[in-house]
Write a structure and sequence with these properties.
With 309 residues, the protein is an alpha/beta fold. The chain folds into 2 domains: 135 residues, Rossmann fold (3-Layer(aba) Sandwich); 162 residues, 3-Layer(aba) Sandwich (Rossmann fold). Helix content is 43%, strand content 14%. The protein is built from 13 helices and 9 strands. The strands form 2 sheets. It has a 5-stranded parallel β-sheet with strand order 7-6-5-8-9. A 4-stranded parallel β-sheet has the order 2-1-3-4, sandwiched between helices. α7 links the parallel β5 and β6. α5 crosses α7 and α7 runs parallel beside α8. Bound molecules: phosphoric acid mono(formamide)ester and norvaline. Norvaline binds next to α7.
Length: 309
């Protein structure tokens, strides 16, 4: 049973296959019968706009049925075990998307389920976001092959969080250069970086972790940022605002990157914090291409995982 909990669950070939399929589905967007008669559960412990709506519309347009489940209305909330929930839902559904606080809970669900489980964001990873972002990078940089993707440099400026971990993992698997700048105390964890470097040794990727945002974005084709305070860390809001202030993506920082560099953000964004409104709404920003591509990539992910279930 294939699940998608982490970028590392996919090979470089599979990632490029999913991205290419998404591009084809995007160019002829229509209702198809790829997943006729199949049902997808969507369990969300945290808010979502893009992930929940794009998966729901994707499932509908593939001929299937999306069932949105608010985690607080499931018996799990009253203490039913993950095992019993996963076993039960596997008798009704053909796949489940889960957005959860703890990555370990989604992993436990996946090992108890008899159906594919898709990570819709945890504290550790946001793989569907990053797969869609690879499509956005390929489109905007006119990249047609997986080997051409290896030539780009992506810089992440900000927090060692789910989005940056999946982005780093995608560089490690696909073989492109990745540099990341974070304030002290918010760097990516040692094990996260070690795993990425282990994969990078085989793919040819370069993984550089540093403190200076100017150094990180030097020569970059892509600058990526995300919120300073992720969902669930709200109690640290004020402390983080101070620590991350020098890490804002603004006009000045862009001067260190390539002139044709694009700016990415998974959204939702706080304009004036991690990036200025001028940059996020400016000509280099591709944030709404990213948001749109969530739909096309979800379709490709769903076909990849559910077509034989
Ligand atoms: N980028 C993203 O996952 O957005 P949502 O939280 O709105 O799903
Ligand atoms: N890092 C952010 C991503 C939101 C899509 C969070 O976890 O809140």
């Amino acid at each position: 049973m294939k699940s998608l909990l982490s970028i590392y669950d996919l090979s470089a070939q599979e990632i490029w296959g999913i991205v290419s399929l998404a591009a084809r589905l995007k160019s002829g967007r229509k209702k198809t019968a790829h997943l006729n008669g199949k049902s997808l559960g969507l369990i969300f412990e945290k808010p979502s706009t893009r992930t929940s709506v794009s998966f729901s519309v994707a499932m509908y347009e593939l001929g299937g049925f999306p069932l949105m489940l608010d985690a607080k209305n499931l018996q799990r909330k009253r203490g039913e075990s993950i095992y019993d929930t996963a076993q039960t839902l596997s008798r009704y559904l053909h796949g489940v998307v889960i957005r959860a606080f703890n990555h370990a809970d989604v992993a436990e669900f996946a090992s108890a389920a008899g159906i594919p489980v898709i990570n819709g964001l945890t504290d550790q990873e946001h793989p569907c976001q990053i797969l869609g972002d690879i499509l956005t990078i390929a489109e905007n940089k006119k990249i047609k092959t997986a080997s051409a993707l290896k030539k780009i440099k992506v810089a992440f400026v900000g927090d060692g969080n789910n989005v940056s971990y999946s982005l780093m993992a995608s560089a490690a698997v696909m073989g492109f250069s990745f540099s990341m700048a974070s304030p002290r105390g918010y760097e990516p964890g040692g094990r996260i970086v070690a795993k990425a470097r282990d994969y990078a040794a085989r793919s040819g990727a370069e993984i550089d972790i540093m403190a200076s945002p100017q150094e990180a974005v030097r020569g970059a084709d892509v600058i990526y940022t995300d919120v300073w305070t992720s969902m669930g860390a709200e109690s640290e809001l004020e402390k983080r605002k101070k620590a991350f202030k020098p890490y804002q993506v603004n006009r000045k920082l862009l001067e260190y990157a390539k002139p044709a560099c694009i700016v990415m953000h998974c959204l939702p964004a706080n304009r004036g914090e991690e990036a200025t409104a001028e940059v996020l709404d400016g000509p280099r920003s591709v944030i709404f291409d990213q948001a749109e591509n969530r739909l096309h990539i979800q379709k490709a992910i769903l076909i990849h995982l559910l077509k034989d279930v």
